[in-house]
Amino acid sequence: MPPKASGKANPSSKQPNHPSTNHPKHKQPVSLDERLKRLFTSLCAQIDGGHFTNAIKTCNKILRLDPADSDALQTKLFLLLQTEQYDAALSLLGGATSGDGPDHTFEEAYAMYRLHREENAATSLARIKETHRGVLHLEAQLSYRHGSYQSSLDLYNELLETADPQSEEYSDVLTNLTASQKHLDFLNMGSLRALHALPSSITSTIETSPPPSVQPTVSLAFTSAALIQQTADESVVANKVKKVRMKRVPKGVIPGVTPAPDPERWLKKSERSSIGQSGRKRRGGGGGATQGVVTENTPAQGHSGKSTGGGGPSHSKGKKKK
Predict the structure, then answer these.
(1) What pLDDT sits at residue 303?
(2) Percent of the chain with pLDDT over 90
(3) Which residues contact 105 (CB under 8 A, 6 or more apart)?
(4) What torsion do the CA atoms of 6, 12, 13, 17 make, to the nearest 10 degrees?
(5) Distances (CA, A) of 160 to 110, 141, 172
(6) At what angle do helices 105-114 and 70-82 cross, to 10 degrees?
(7) How many CB atoms lie within 10 A of CB 319?
(8) Is pLDDT at 113 greater than 70 in this prediction?
(9) Residue 204's Cα: distance from chain center in Å?
(10) Helix or strand or coil: residue 308?
C-alpha cells in the first residue's frame, strides 16, 4: 500500500521573495532647470488670467531658487506696481543688485510720484537719459502738481499730437489737457488777483467756510419739475391698457380684432334706437300718428239741432227738451 501524501507544502517549493519588488522605487529629484520651467509656466498662466497676487507668490518661489533671475525681478516689479504696492516696489528696487541688468529709474520715479514724493520723483526723472512717452506723461503730471500749468499744457499738447485718436491714452491726455487749460485761464484772467484783493478776514476763512445755500428759485424749480414728472407718471399709469385674461374671453373672439357686441342687445327690438330710426311705414292709423295718440272729430251743429258727422248722419240719441 503506497504511503499517503502529507497536506503540508514543501518549503523548498516556495519561490523566494525578492526585496526589490516589495519596496517602491525612489523618485529621481527634479532638476533646478525643470522646476524653474514649471514655475515660469504657472507664472505666465496666472498673469494671463489676471491673478496678480498668486503671480507675486510664484515670483517669490523663483527668486528663492535663483535670486539673480532678471526676468523674475522685472515681472515682480511690474506686478507690484499693478497692485499699487509702491513701498514694496521701492524696497525691491533698493535690494536689487546693480549691474548689467535693465534700468529701473523710471519705475522708481513713478512709485515716488504715487507716494506723493514729488521732489524725489523729479530727481529720478532727471537721471533718465532716454526720453519716451512714459517719461513725458510723468513730467506733465509733476508740473501740474507743482502748479506749472503752462509747462504741463505744452507737454500734453505734444502727447496729444502723437497719440492715436481711438486709443485710451488720447482720452486721458485730453482730460488732463483740459484741466491744465482751465487752471491757466483762472490765473491769467485775474481771478486769483481778485481773491488777493479781498480782506484778510475773508481770505483766511474762504477755504474752510461752508458752500453758499441754495437759492429758493432753484428749489421751486426742482419742486415743479418733480410735480410735472409725477403727473406724467400718473397719466402713463392711467392710460396703460389693462391686460385681458384669455380665460375669460369667449371662444372665437380675438381681443382688439373682433367687433364689440351691441350694447342694446338686452333690450327689446321695439325699444332699440336702431329700430325706431328705420323708414318703414306702420300699417293702419292715419297721418302717421304714433301709438297712443287719439284723434277726435268735433261734430258740427246744424239748424235742426242734430249733429252731422264728417261722412253721414249721426245716430247718437239726445234728451228731448220739454
Answers:
(1) 46
(2) 37
(3) 124, 125, 127, 128
(4) 130
(5) 21, 14, 10
(6) 20
(7) 5
(8) yes
(9) 43
(10) strand
Residues 80, 63 contacting (CB under 8 angstroms): no
* 3-class SS of residue 259: coil
Q: Does residue 147 carry a pLDDT above 50? A: yes
pTM: 0.52
Q: What are phi and psi of 294, to 5 degrees?
A: -115, 130
Whether residue 112 contacts residue 90, with contact meaning beta carbons closer than 8 Å, is answered with: yes
Residue 112 has a CB neighbour count (10 Å cut-off) of 21
Q: Cα–Cα distance between 206 and 195 in angstroms, integer? A: 10
- Sort strands 307-308 and 300-301 into parallel, antiparallel or unpaired: antiparallel
Residue type, 217: T
C-alpha cell at 8: 503540508
Of 99, 101, 131, the closest CA to residue 109 belongs to: 131
> Between 52-65 and 70-82, two packed helices, what is the crossing angle to 10 degrees?
150
Residue 262: what are its φ and ψ, rounded to 5°? -70, 125
The three three-digit cell numbers of residue 175, written as one number: 482730460
Would you state the cell numbers that stand for residue 42, as one nine-digit string?
Answer: 504657472
CA atoms within 13 A on the CB side of 219: 4
* Nearest-angstrom CA–CA distance, 56 and 92: 12
The grid coordinates listed for 156 are: 500734453
Which cell goes with 165?
485718436
**Do the beta carbons of residue 264 and residue 272 sit within 8 Å?**
yes
Is the CB of residue 53 less than 8 Å from the CB of residue 83?
yes
